[in-house]
Amino acid sequence: MGRERFGGGKGEWSGADALHGSYSKAIKELEELSRLLSGRARSDMAMAGVVVGCGGENRTRASA
């Protein structure tokens, strides 16, 4: 969201400048958190696939 959405125009209202700065920082941090969690979810799914694969092999050997 652009600075103009916070009112007053660039440099005309310091409160809006500060609010926009905080908003921009929060958005960047949320985007980074989302990126990290996405990577974690992918690795968890990969690990689940390995665990399921190993479990299937163990059941096959046990019943043989």
Topology at a glance:
Blueprint: H1 14-63
Give an overview of the whole structure.
- By secondary structure, this protein is mostly helical.
- Helices cover 78% and strands 0% of the residues.
- It contains one helix and no strands.
- The longest helix has 50 residues, at 14-63.
- The termini are far apart.
Descriptive key words:
single chain, mainly alpha, 0% strand, rod-shaped
Overall geometric form: rod-shaped
Biggest sheet record: none
Roughly what fraction of the amino acids lie in strands? under 5%
Specify the number of helices.
1
Outline of the structure:
With 64 residues, this protein is mostly helical. It has one helix and no strands. The mean pLDDT is 77.
